[in-house]
Specification:
binds molybdenum atom, disordered N terminus, 7 helices, 239 residues, single chain, Sulfite Oxidase, Chain A, domain 2, 5-stranded antiparallel beta sheet, binds ligand MTE, globular
Amino acid sequence: MDLLQPRHRLLRRRFLQLSGLSGISLVLGGCGSNLFAETVNDAFEPLNQRVETLLFKPQTPVPEFPPSAIEPEALLINSFGETPRLNPATFRLVIDGEVNNPLSLSMDEIRRMPLTSMIIRHVCVEGWAAIVQWGGVRLRDLVQLVQPKNSARYVYFQSADGYSESWDLDSVLHPQTLMAYQKNDRPLPVDNGAPLRLASPVKLGYKQSKWVTRITLVNELMPSKGYWEDRGYEWYAGL
Ligand SMILES: Nc1nc2c(c(=O)[nH]1)N[C@H]1C(S)=C(S)[C@@H](COP(=O)(O)O)O[C@H]1N2
Ligand SMILES: [Mo]
């Protein structure tokens, strides 16, 4: 499938840039979170150098799609096991590890943070793709809140169904990497990962953990790198 060949994606991205479409996503992607970042930086100790460098490193936004391109039926449910039923009222997202300010956040607290909406393509290695709208908080905003230590290099995601994933910090801090609680302008359905899942245009589908309960910043990757990675799939899995 040509979607999975990096060269085609790059050409397509370049085409969108040349045709001026990427400017639209730049504008859409710029809303809201600068003020928030300033508030966070004022409220806490200055961030460490490495993470600070990464946070200020400009990352190219992936061009987004117009609402008319959304494919409501195309996102197939893909879960290795049973769908866990988490109570959103008592749900907590724990963020810990190599951080100065570990947090346990309720969905109410997460919903009060700036909402980012994006329309991107989800690509599963099993040979299907879907254009989806996701709404949620930028993962980089959550990372700023917990004040990462200099030693933070990778991020682990634990899910309620036993799934796990690990990501590089650069992709974690990408402005279009979200912890999503909305799909196609509706509350996120349980089968798609409610109350909270990863959504990002820079990674393949299996990196996008559903039902995330814990985010842990670490210095080194552990022997287990993720559910599918431990079964031979590529770790970086970039799009
Ligand atoms: N917790 C958890 N997250 C997961 C999976 C899973 O089995 N468990 N499957 C992954 C795969 S392979 C894909 S393609 C997407 C599918 O997301 P969807 O079911 O919302 O379409 O979820 C990813 N995240
Ligand atoms: Mo997948």
